[in-house]
Amino acid sequence: MSVILSSFNNIELAQADKLHSVEQLVMINSTKSSFVMDATESNLTALEKRGHEFYIPSDLLKHVNEDSNAKVYFDLECHPFYQKIKEVIEKGITSNGVFRFRRISKGNNPQLIADDLYVLSLLFGEPKEKYIKKSKLETVISHIILMIRFESGVMAHVEFTFANVNRIELEWSGIKQIVEFDSDELRGQLLPLQYSANDLVSSAKKIDAVLIDKVRYYKNFVAGGALI
């Protein structure tokens, strides 16, 4: 049984049931193997006390240690489109292509930036050079733009915009190969940026000191930069 701490809007609930309290776990009468609860510190603490294995978003990492029963997931990795593009990039990464990534997100969530950069570092290696420009975060719509050269040699243009919509765009340009994705092209479908409980569970990672330190590093990664 998998218990996932998340927003109910993120998970395709065709594969999971909602839980409103940990106490409901003892009264479960469902054929589904995954359950979703609000991503709160109190729910995390209650699950820890009961010894359940469960899955948390990285913004709850500060409330656990490496002995936790929890595993951590990162939003970008949970999406099937990212996994498909990742497979293509891994086959052609020696060609030192150019990667473009743009995320538009509701609200101002620096943790989401750290998550995405951490996921990209798993694919391209550690950043070796960076150039950052940003707008003031207190503006209605704010931007952070990064030019990064990763240790693999890949150059990346990474852009985050905090506005009132959710959208992800990806493009990989290698030798004789271009792969693109734009979630806006799925706008006619129901919540195109949802992902399945199974994809979340399969991409989740065991929590250890190295992971915790790395996520913390990327949270500080975008400090500084010139204002635009």
Name the features:
228 residues; alpha/beta; seven-stranded mixed beta sheet; globular
What would you note in describing this structure?
This protein has about 230 residues and is of the alpha/beta class. Helices cover about 25% and strands about 30% of the residues. The protein has 6 helices and 13 strands. It has helices at about 40-50, 75-80, 80-90, 110-125, 195-205, 210-220; strands spanning about 1-5, 15-20, 35, 55, 70-75, 100-105, 125-135, 140-150, 155-165, 165-175, 175-180, 205, 225. It has a 7-stranded mixed sheet. Strands 2-3-1-4-5-12 form a 6-stranded mixed sheet, with helices on both faces. Strand 7 (about 125-135) and strand 8 form a beta hairpin. The longest helix has 15 residues, at about 110-125. The relative contact order is 0.19. The model has no long low-confidence stretch (mean pLDDT about 85).
